Each structure stands twice: as C-alpha cells, then as structure tokens.
Amino acid sequence: MDLSPVKREILEAVLMHDKPVKAAQVAREVGKDFPPVMMHLLGLARMGYACSPEKGQFILTDSGKKALGLPEITKENAAAIMQHVPRESAFHFYAGIGKPLNLYAHSLQDFCDKIAKVNVESVEFHVSRGDFESWFACLGDAELAKKTALLKERKLAGEELCRRLLEIVENRCIVLSKMVGHSVPSA
Q1: What pTM, to 2 d.p., does this model score?
Q2: If you placed Cys at 184, which of 10, 57, 171, 177 could pair as Cys (CB 3.0 to 4.6 Å)?
Q3: pLDDT tens digit sequence for 67-88
Q4: How far apart are the C-alpha atoms of 23 and 142, rounded to whole Å?
C-alpha cells in the first residue's frame, strides 16, 4: 500500500527514534498540529506500520520500515555492516574541499568513535554533500543512510546536527552489535 506524503513524513519522523516516541514530539518534528498527527499515527498502527507500547507513544514496526523501502536486517547483514574495511573503503573526513583531516573511519563503530571528535564544520560539510549517507549505503546499511538523509532534509546544523548524528550512529551500532552478539563500548 502506498503511503500518503503526510503519513510517510510521520513514519520517517518515528524512524528517527530507536525507542518509543510521543505523538506530541512527532507533531513538533513534522511541524503539524497534534490532533491530525495523532490520528495518522493511530491509522499507521492499525495498518501495522507502527505500534504503541504505551499510550501516546509509537515505534516503527518491521512492516513500517518495509513501507519506507528499508530492507530487513539479518544477523549476517549486521555483521557485514559492522566489519572493518580497508583504507580505500574507509570514510575519509574533510573540513571542506581540499581540506583533508587525515582522519579515517574503518568500520561503523570506528566512525561512531571518531564522529564524536570531529568538528562541526566537517560534519556540516559531509552532511550537505550526502557523504555520510553514501558511505553507510556502501556498508550495506540502508536504514542508517535513510536516517542521515532525513537529518539533511530537516536542515539541522551546528551542534544540534552533530548531536543527532552521533545519537543515530551510536544507537545503530548498539542495535547491530546486539544482533551479531558483540558488546559495544559505552560512549
């Protein structure tokens, strides 16, 4: 079933959270009034795209992720996404065009560790160009690529962009590490 643009936008807002999110927060994030957003969320729950573990809170289901075009992740996919890559496939951080930082991320966990230390200028540069989402897609993580693209669409900047990106990547590392049975170093 095709989603209306409004339902898609609401589902994408819920996707950005890896834990149940209040309907009021979703309404704020999409810039719409609470009552219609709540009605859409209830409809999405009836469709099986979201569920409500607590009254007024929603989280995406696997069907919801599929409706957004995201593939299901298996233990094998998770392991492939988390693996170490050679330098030529590593993420190379820059502060701008022709301004390499000589800093490389060789895995998603390595990226998570380094993104916390990279300056705002570098993060904004890479987000504006779609570099992070492209690298995540190359690792095989369509969901993380989608979340990063949504950060760009929301036009986040500065410290807020850095904070949200770090939060998204850290949460993704935790989820994938649990799937493959590894512990994740705490931030």
Answers
A1: 0.86
A2: 177
A3: 999 999 999 999 999 999 999 9
A4: 25
pLDDT tens for 21-67 read 999 999 999 999 999 999 999 999 999 999 999 998 999 999 999 99
User: What domains are defined for the chain?
Assistant: 5-67 (1.10.10.10), 75-180 (no CATH)
What is the distance between the alpha carbons of residues 134 and 141, in angstroms, rounded to a whole number?
10
Q: Which two tokens stand for residue 22?
A: 């209040």
Cβ contact 85:106 at 8 Å? yes
d(CA 172, CA 178): 10
Question: What's the distance, CA 163 to chain centroid?
Answer: 12
Provide the residue type at 105 as one letter. A
- Measured distance CA(128)–CA(158) in Å, rounded: 12
Element (H, E) at 57: strand 57-60
CA distance 160 to 155: 10
